[in-house]
Design brief:
The protein is mostly helical. The protein has two domains: about 230 residues, no CATH class; about 90 residues, no CATH class. It is elongated.
Length: about 425
Amino acid sequence: MTSHDPRSAPAPLPQQANPSWMGQVPEQHYRPAPANYREQPRAALTAALPPARAGRGSAGVMGLMAAGGALGFIGLFTVLPFVLVNTGLAGFAIGFVASLLPLGAVLLAVRVIDRWEPEPKGLLLFAFMWGAVVSVAVTLLIQPYFSLAAGPASGLDYRTFAVTVQAPVVEEFAKSLGLLLLLLFARRHFDGPVDGVVFAFTIAGGFAFTENILYFGRAIAESSDPGTDLVVVFFLRGVMSPFAHAIFTGTTGLIMGFAARRWHTGLSVAAFAVGLVPAILLHSGWNSMGQDFLAQYILVQVPIFLLAVLVIVLLRVAERRLTRQRLREYASAGWFTGPEVEMLSTGAGRRGALRWATSIGRGPQMTAFLHAATQLAFTRQRILSGRDVPAHQLEEQHRLAEVAALREAVLRR
């Protein structure tokens, strides 16, 4: 893994800077990657710079996590009594265990989607806690007021209003508030549609987890044939629709993720409002299915699920293309070789590199190198967005030093 002379490498043309629809860069914001001069000692550069995680962004993340923990703790005093009253202790225990299965499916999907550029575990924990506790508490607090304000004007009977209007509007608003907080206070980690989908799926998975405990527990507590009713409810919610909430809220996260590319607070808030619309419509459509449930499920909901899978696949392909292009720009500046870029920007290349490093006892160092290079590519994307450029250029220097140090750690004898 050696770098060629950056002074002999041509800079990429601006039109090459847009490898896919995900990473479009305005021509006026494009700038070459900083050169890697051989005479600049990497060890000294690494020692001279502060840690890559230092700065205003980490303070915002820590504050967000602290606030989320406090809100989650307070929310438990609203959510837990409500669930226990409706399920009883036995129903709660059985519902809790049964709810782990659909939750596992959602979290597995999150892991697959998030594999290329993993989000910090602390932020994923915040997202899950927001969904499982805070958004449920917000829903319980807002629902009565929303019903009084909008119920009479809708002209619907209470049950129809509650199922097709109140639940979709209030629940999607409560879940997506967590997305808005992540976008405003952890923007360095929420900089694209893939991140939006990951955080949205995690929040929705948490919300569905608590909701499933309630539904499964009620099947135990309120039924004369609890075993049969639990199987029916579990099949409907845990087998046929474990991703329902994830897809609803995922549309909001997707739209907010595209807005995150612009790094503009006003646009972020506007994307929050716009993103609620498809989430509410999808949620309402799901809740509106009645006697012809099976036909609507096959003809409408299954295609929606398949479309969601297709969107996620396209997002991952675009993310890899973006990584390859940004790393090629660093290669032109002397930070990587061509083979390194191919290794870092393909799944097969990464797996092969990790197998080789593990065979010589350097697996953790290679894992860190792969992650740091990906983070570097996305840092460059933020630079090319044209907003907060000096702060991101400082982060870029930290990332470059980190990549250089990790390369040496992988190759040292």
